[in-house]
Amino acid sequence: MAIEFSTLLRQLRRNAGITQEALAERAGVGVRTIRGLETGERADPRVNTVRLLADALGLRPTEREELLAAAVRRTGHGNQPDASTGHVEPATGQPGSALHESLAEVAGQLAQVVAARWQREEEQRQVHDPYPLPVCWRPVAEELIDHWANIRRLPAGGAHGPLDLSGRLDEVVGVYRRIPSGRLVVLGRAGSGKTILTVRFVLDRLQSRAHGESVPVIFSIGSWDPTATTLRDWLAAQLTRDHPGLAAPGPGGSALAAALVESGWVLPVLDGFDEIAGGLRRPALEALNATTLPLLLTSRPAQYAAAVAETDVLTSAAAVELTDLTLDDLADYLPRSTRKSPGTDPAGTAWDPVLTALHEQPDNPACINLTTVLTTPLMITLARTIYSDTPGHDPATLLDTRRFDGPEQLEEHFLDNFVTAAYRPRPEHLPRSGPRPDVDPERARCWLGYLAVHLTRLGTPNLEWWRLGSGLRRRTRALVTALAVATAVCPTTALVLGTVGAFTGSLHNIMLQFVNAAAAGLFMGLTFGTTYWFMFAAKDTAVPPSDTRVKVFGRARKTGRSASYRLVIGLAGGVSYGFSYGFLWGMLNCVILRIGFPESLNISLKDGIFFGLVFALGAGPAFGLQALLESPLDIQSAVNPVGLLRANRRTSTILFLLWAPALGLLVDTGAWVIVHPLSALLGPIKWNLSASVQVGVTSGLCGVLSYGLAFTAYGQWVAFSRIWLPLTGRLPWPVVTFLEDAYQRGVLRQAGAVYQFRHARLQDHLARTYRELHASQHPTGPGGGAPTQ
């Protein structure tokens, strides 16, 4: 009979002839931990702690194995809390410390949000309708895994036989627990169920998660550039993107996201190693080997094998490969996915003739083709959508070798008809009778194709709403931003100047006011467009979404952004813009009034200095005030793309309502403060109530509008996704409605704060067909052309 862990630990300690206090000191753990483990009060011995105890006791390899095995037996298998690899002892703070408890509370909140998110996603993907497809796996070739002694974390001389890693989808957590290193690679060809496995792993592990254990979080690793960002920094950035509240400062001053990653509270589930750009897979694998983080990594076999051949296997990682579905799996699943056929057989379905042919004529070319294709969850799901969920489609046509003379044609057929089936008109969702809009399948295919090309160009599977404009050429982005700013500023300035002029009796000079408005719009557009070019377009980056909110009442928590830094930025920007605006406006007035060049230069310099100081005194304090009013978003505030978009819209709206009057008042106040001292230094400056109101109101409204359109994620969304891309036919006008509808139809999926295509194969297919269609409609030569971006 196996010895209980508590009894074995006490026996080994006594054999070593040391006290509990001495063992605690050698192992670097608390005395209460030793006492709790020996008395059985602590029922969750963590493998990291057990290893420390084994090292401190100087155990032989056989004794070490026995102690580790007892620890695993104590926590059990299946859906019991994981004691083997689920939690890495926090690098900052011991259990019971204020730091540990603070991070444990945040990790608990994160676990709730992650569980709710993936539960909804699994329901959206109809994984359990009628039941999950039987995803299974087998061992991989030995050259793709590390030495078993390293996987087992054994000392020199320890027995190192292979682990039994066989299992099914519902056993993935138990299989992972058998791996002492906590590092597992799951290989599988396209559509074999890797993503389904990661979702099930996260949900099952969270269901059994005990207090103090790490939280499994899925990361789409295809967007990681290991040459630019370290793994931990990238993980923290992804966490902040999906959970903006984790940008708040945590214990010790670092952001909560970074603290969770560094302290081992996050178990990375890295999905899609094969989606990393080809030239980056080797450095990515080397970067993963530079860490000891427990993780689960998924990849297609060929891409992972190529990376291993270039450098090395994933250190201390075991690996399995997903197997194909069998004909029996099809016979069980497909008939239950469709309605019964009317006829003599009450249990018969449209799939019965096809399945019968596959069983009885396995050597028939048509049956060979179809059996070859229907071996992955992806293809079975597509076939179900087209034939089981779509009335009037007979799956028997799949055996027509005149239409499909090979497996490739069948796969293309499934991918090509999936969008058509997803966007078919449904009686319960006809226009004006339900929430789902009626979208023409061909138009939807075109819009989805553009999105697929957009993602291919960016080299990422993540469809981020704040980067939809990044698919355009960089100079186009800068030009569109400048046009958006100028278009917003011109009528705003004209309205303000005309209104103020009417109240002050200055309508006789209305033409000059319109010239002023046009000049203000043109200059503001050029200024912000140029600044946007240097800050974002030239670097081919996008304005990131805000991870803060504006909190007027109550105490705003510190966000780590210095108000003094914002003050300096505002002062510098105000001086630059104000001097340029004043100088050019002075020159324009002198040209209109036909004043000589020497005097024009003197007047323009005086106006430039005056307006430079005025706008500096307005923009500097306004930027500082904005920083003081910012507070981090809650962890639960952005659990999907639409939630993050709405949060940024609210933030932008509140900033406009607060910042516009604040900036206008500050500019106006600054003008009255400096007008007299500057008049004494530079000569008389004409300034009156009418000029004060005009400058204050226009600077407040136009300054905030320009800043919002050029330098906020929501403003860029409006400029590109709500105006430019629909105007040029690349996307529909109701973009949010279209994306959410595509998600509801199963064409897109959600991964945190971003959308993704249902599968990379579908994205590649839509991108290719979009390019082919565009090339046929806009040929540039014998080989056609590429889509204009």
UniProtKB/TrEMBL annotation:
Residues 76-96 are annotated as: Disordered. The lineage of its organism: Bacteria, Bacillati, Actinomycetota, Actinomycetes, Kitasatosporales. The chain crosses the membrane at residues 478-504, 510-534, 567-588, 654-675, 695-720. InterPro entries: Cro/C1-type_HTH (IPR001387), Lambda_DNA-bd_dom_sf (IPR010982), NACHT_NTPase (IPR007111), P-loop_NTPase (IPR027417). CDD domains: HTH_XRE. Residues 9-64 form the HTH cro/C1-type domain. SMART domains: HTH_XRE. PROSITE patterns: HTH_CROC1. Keywords: Membrane, Transmembrane, Transmembrane helix. This is NACHT domain-containing protein. SUPFAM superfamilies: lambda repressor-like DNA-binding domains (SSF47413), P-loop containing nucleoside triphosphate hydrolases (SSF52540). Pfam families: HTH_31, NACHT.
